[in-house]
Write a sequence for this structure.
């Protein structure tokens, strides 16, 4: 395009080419694609890059206020079965991430939120929504609940399996301790959840207050 | 210089008056654009005055839009045609004019370069914390709804739906997946707050948005403001609805649902472009002059890892010393999080060399023309003194 500009021996062709090039270049500037792009990328390390809100040049705007920290004095601990491992945190509002020695897709997390954290029904329906199950109402919730007595108090246990050919399953317990809501949740492929379930229930049964925190 | 045409249109197009009119119009546009930046911010002002064919006036109280002035693109195009034709028609093809030919070519290239920049330049950001590795850049002014299949423990399948598509609403099938996203409502800017008793009930039935109130706000465009977009979307897969979700670039944590054993995350975020290499921030430095808080230097020590080239090396990026790699220039632009976060401005412009080449051409042309004129003048003097 640029090299054609210095060819004065054929002015009419060169003129037309330059005009066409300039017009097409300008026309391209107005294009805004609505196509859906697909990328297959390796997972990035750590969390997603922080939004430019962190930059002093681009101050944060109206974020959802972060939930207040859990009140002190209500830390729970548990006993890990053999070959299970745990890491503290793990992104978002997670308190801990547990790893089971089973194959397949499986995620075990402990989350703590202050207060009722939206309530039991909303949280149970959120879990059901994640595996494509319809929401429950109050009486159906009571039917699905299985209370489990622990040293930390009563844990409401739920176990749901999705429909479809490749089934997903979620087993989760919820306990309110000293005004904080504790969620211990295992989700993944139905087979993997099935294999890890006995150990998971042992972890839930071992929940107790952290003596060192009292 | 003699005009070798009688065609009136061509005469008008090659006239010097048109050149002057174009330059005057550009001066007016630059002034108006600069003043408009105070209210609109840099980007919208440049789009309205410089990149548009016309500057439009919205007649108050009506839907009417009237063009009131030629935009930068139109003036640039007319100037380009004017320069080009003037060169062909006015300048004679002779060795004594070679300097002017080169200078004119340089000027034409300069105007053309701005069109290339306008059409192809992509500006984005790369925000990376110390110790973190990032393999993408983000466009802060463009958003996407990312539907990410995170099932594979090593790789993610990212499906990016541009915000412009969300604004149109309706069902958006995600190619290659059984998932379709039904857009219930899109807000270009919204305030998110905890749902209070006075708020209307939220249409959101799943995810973290069930307890969040979304209040629509007018979009902002100034450089120091950011739109917080939000949308109510309903993922449907295999004929089954996974509830209505709130997605927003103001919500930090991604939300997910599982269909037939595959887990999909939903995230409204700045549009990402993935790189064939990764950048790790080893150290960010914010040096100040001793005894003051006056910045002396900002620098980022990064490692580039490019498996396709088998390359892994450290690079120091600091003020005015960008990293140029794979067609992109990474400039040190900002920082945050107690000097542990570095923000690099990433500019990709295939025409970045054009202004340099044009300036060199103009300079060479003027020097050549001066040399030719000097030689001719000295010969005349010599001839006069000999006579």
């Amino acid at each position: 395009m640029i090299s054609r500009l210095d060819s004065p021996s054929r002015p009419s062709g060169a003129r037309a080419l330059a005009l066409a090039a300039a017009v097409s270049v300008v026309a391209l500037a107005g294009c805004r694609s609505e196509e859906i792009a697909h990328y297959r990328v390796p997972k990035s390390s750590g969390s997603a890059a922080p939004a430019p809100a962190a930059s002093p040049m681009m101050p944060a705007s109206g974020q959802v206020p972060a939930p207040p920290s859990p009140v002190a004095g209500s830390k729970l601990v548990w006993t890990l079965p053999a070959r299970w491992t745990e890491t503290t945190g793990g992104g978002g509002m997670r308190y801990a991430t547990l790893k089971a020695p089973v194959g397949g897709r499986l995620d075990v997390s402990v989350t703590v939120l202050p207060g009722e954290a939206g309530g039991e029904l909303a949280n149970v329906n959120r879990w059901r929504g994640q595996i494509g199950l319809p929401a429950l109402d109050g009486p159906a919730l009571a039917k699905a609940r299985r209370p489990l007595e622990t040293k930390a108090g009563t844990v409401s246990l739920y176990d749901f399996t999705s429909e479809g050919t490749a089934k997903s399953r979620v087993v989760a317990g919820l306990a309110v301790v000293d005004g904080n809501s504790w969620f211990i949740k295992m989700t993944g492929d139905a087979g993997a959840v099935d294999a890890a379930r006995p150990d998971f229930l042992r972890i839930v049964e071992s929940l107790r207050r952290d003596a060192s925190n009292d | 210089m003699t005009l070798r045409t009688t065609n009136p249109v061509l005469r008008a197009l090659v006239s010097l008056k048109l050149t002057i009119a174009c330059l005057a119009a550009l001066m007016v546009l630059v002034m108006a654009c600069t003043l408009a930046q105070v209210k609109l911010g840099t980007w919208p002002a440049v789009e309205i005055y410089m990149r548009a064919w016309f500057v439009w006036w919205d007649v108050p109280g009506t839907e009417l839009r009237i063009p009131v002035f030629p935009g930068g693109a139109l003036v640039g195009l007319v100037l380009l045609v004017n320069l080009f034709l003037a060169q062909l028609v006015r300048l004679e093809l002779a060795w004594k004019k070679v300097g002017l030919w080169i200078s004119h070519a340089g000027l034409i290239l300069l105007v053309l370069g701005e069109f290339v920049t306008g059409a192809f330049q992509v500006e984005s950001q790369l925000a990376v914390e110390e110790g973190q590795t990032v393999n993408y850049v983000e466009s802060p002014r463009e958003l996407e709804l990312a539907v990410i299949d995170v099932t594979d423990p090593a790789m993610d399948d990212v499906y990016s739906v541009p915000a412009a598509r969300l604004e149109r609403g309706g069902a958006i099938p995600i190619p290659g997946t059984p998932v379709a996203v039904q857009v219930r409502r899109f807000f270009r800017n919204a305030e998110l707050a905890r749902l209070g008793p006075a708020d209307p009930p939220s249409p959101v039935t799943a995810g973290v948005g069930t307890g969040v109130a979304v209040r629509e706000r007018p979009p902002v465009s100034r450089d120091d403001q950011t739109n917080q977009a939000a949308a109510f979307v309903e993922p449907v897969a295999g004929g089954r609805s996974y509830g209505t979700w709130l997605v927003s670039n103001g919500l930090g944590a991604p939300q997910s649902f599982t269909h037939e054993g595959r887990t999909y995350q939903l995230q409204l975020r700045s549009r990402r472009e993935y790189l064939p290499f990764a950048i790790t921030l080893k150290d960010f430095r914010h040096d100040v002059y001793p005894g003051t808080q006056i910045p002396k230097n900002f620098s980022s020590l990064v490692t580039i890892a490019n498996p396709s080239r088998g390359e892994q090396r450290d690079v120091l990026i600091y003020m005015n010393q960008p990293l140029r790699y794979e067609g992109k220039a990474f400039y040190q632009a900002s920082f945050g999080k107690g000097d542990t976060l570095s923000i690099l401005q990433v500019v990709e412009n295939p025409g970045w060399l054009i202004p340099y080449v044009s300036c060199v051409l103009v300079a060479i042309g003027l020097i050549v023309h001066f040399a030719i004129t000097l030689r001719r003048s000295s010969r005349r003097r010599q001839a006069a003194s000999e006579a």
About this structure: Chain B touches chain A through 99 residues (CB under 8 Å). Chain B is about 30% helix and 40% strand.
